[in-house]
Amino acid sequence: MNTVRKSIFPSAQDTWASIAARELDSTNTEESIANLQSWNLHVFARPPAPADSPRAGNPILPSDILFIEPPLA
User: Fold this and answer.
1) Residue 32 and residue 38: Cα distance in Å, rounded?
2) CA 11, CA 47: separation in Å to the nearest integer?
3) How far apart are CA 52 and CA 50, in angstroms?
4) Among residues 7, 70, 8, which one has the least CA distance to residue 39?
5) Could you report the per-residue pLDDT of 26-36, keeping only the tens digit for each?
């Protein structure tokens, strides 16, 4: 049986901070955000949206799969 890494689909309004507060409440916010970003480089390293875009300032899309725990191995 394979162990599956915990992940979520974010809501349209989610930010790194809102996900950290909801999913990783056992650590401080800055540390939780840093962990989320390091576990989700496919989102964190995404080029920023244009300034006039509704997604400006937030790289997270509702279609993203976000890992909420570190790699298992």
Assistant:
1) 10
2) 20
3) 5
4) 70
5) 779 999 999 99
Residue 4 corresponds to which tokens in the numbers above? 């599956």
| Token duo for residue 53 | 């875009």
The ranges assigned to domains in the chain are 7-67
Q: How far is CA 67 from CA 1, 30, 39, 58, 73, in A?
A: 20, 17, 6, 17, 14
CB 65 within 8 A of CB 6: no
- Is the separation of the CB atoms in 8 and 68 below 8 Å? yes
pTM (2 decimals)? 0.86
d(CA 59, CA 5): 22
User: Collapsing DSSP states into helix, strand and coil, what is residue 26?
Assistant: coil
Supply 33's token pair: 């955000």
